[in-house]
Amino acid sequence: TPASQFTYVQSGTTIALSSSQNPSSFAQPVTFVAIVTGSSPTGSVLFRDGGVPLGAGVLSAGVATLTSSS
C-alpha cells in the first residue's frame, strides 16, 4: 500500500567540541575543533569564550577549526 512504502527517521544534530593544549600557557596557540554531525551540516561555527567571540571556522566535511593565541 502507499502508506507502507516509506520509513521516516528523525535525524538530530550533534556537536562535539575539543581543544589542543588544555590547559594552555599564556600566548601558547590553542586549536579549537567542532565536529558537527547531522544531515550534511554546512556554514560556520562561531567559537566563544563565554559571551566573547574568539572567531569563526567554516565547516568542511562537518569539521570547523579555529587556532588562537590570545
Total helices: the number is: 0
Class computed from helices, strands and strand pairing: mainly beta
Distance between the termini: 61 Å
Shape: elongated
SSE sequence, one letter per element: EEEEE
The tally of strands reads 5
Q: Which percent range describes the beta-strand content?
A: over 45%
Major sheet description: 3 strands, antiparallel
Low-pLDDT residue intervals, each spanning 5 or more residues: none
| Whole-angstrom Rg | 17 Å
Helix content: under 10%
Task: Average the pLDDT over all residues and give the rounded result.
Answer: 86
Strand arrangement in the largest pleated sheet: 1-2-5
Explain this structure:
By secondary structure, the chain is mainly beta. It has strands at residues 14-19, 30-37, 44-49, 52-58, 63-68. The chain has a 3-stranded antiparallel beta sheet, with no helix packed on it. A two-stranded antiparallel sheet has the order 3-4. The mean pLDDT is 86.
Structure at a glance:
By secondary structure, the chain is mostly beta strands. It contains no helices and five strands.
Secondary structure layout plus pairing:
Layout: E1 14-19, E2 30-37, E3 44-49, E4 52-58, E5 63-68
Antiparallel strand pairs: 1-2, 2-5, 3-4
